[in-house]
Amino acid sequence: MASQTSNGREITYIAAIAEGAQAILAEQDNAFIAGEDVAGAGGVFGSYRGLLDEFGPDRVVDTPISEEGIVGLGVGAAATGLRPIIDIMFMDFMGECMDEIANQMAKMRYMFGGSAKLPITVVTMSGAGLNMAAQHSQSLEVWICHLPGLKVVAPSTPHDAKGLLIAASRDDNPVFVVMNKLSLRNRGTVPEEPYEVPIGKANIVRPGDDLTIITYSRMVSEALTAAAALAEEGLEAEVIDLRSLQPMDTDTVIESVAKTHRAVVVHEAVRFAGLGGEIAAQIQELAFDDLDAPVARVGAPFSPVPFSAVLEQTYLPNADKIVAQARSLLGG
User: Fold this and answer.
1) Is-catalytic flag, 136?
2) Which candidate in 136, 159, 261, 267 is catalytic?
3) What DSSP character marks residue 154?
4) In whole angstroms, what is the distance from residue 32 CA to residue 177 CA?
5) In sequence order, what are the residues at sequence separation of 6 or more whose Cβ sits closer than 8 angstroms to the Cβ of residue 5?
6) How far apart are CA 140 and CA 285, in angstroms?
7) Closest to 212 in 3D by CA, of 198, 202, 201, 197
């Protein structure tokens, strides 16, 4: 359901996904959606509800419970001229089809000298906080970011969920759109008409001069909460929502760090070998002389996601942990 605010029409993150998918199918006659329960139930989270009635079973396709088969369907269809949207309901299940992702989808265009286009969009859900335990709560985006030939985006808002999904569908390369489960009921302003959020361009969601917080997906809201708390202490943090993880908008990050001289990188994924390590390395390579302190990182501990609700909340990065790290950088 949409509601009107002083800033325009407001809908949920999950409704924005549905609108983006509807716009893609209406715009592209050779596009289709395939995945487990995408037709009958609109997907496990209801992301595609109503699309079967509008577009029919040839374009909204229920598949067997086989991630390997779903991704194989998408790769073959894309290579032969279609524009599939493939739904992998939980990012944790990427391991089931990693050979097809890493050795077929990522490499096919390169190995065929550019003659094969792979306009495939993979939509998946990541993140913890819903008490879904260790096999349904992971943030594994760094797996995909490590593979040349693939693009990866991670929207934090309903606006970006719709715009990045549409941008992915119009790209002639494989794009992974990593949605976040705990964000599905969040509301935000979203235009009714189709639009693109550019892949490869970050968004400065809060300006500041004392510290740069670089993050993406659900951690953007935690970073904004942290920035508001720091502002009460007279410290102004600039918050960058990367939005696009591969390719990454390094220029925006470096320009911000050159201004603020301090940086904290935040992600929900396990801190060790997470994307924060790559971002920190780029900052020290390109902005070392601008730094007044080491680049700090906030991420999950090196542990599976706990099933216990109390332990899960302890496990997750949050605004308080970001504030504590920021204070340490600022000498507080």
Assistant:
1) yes
2) 136
3) -
4) 16
5) 189
6) 25
7) 202
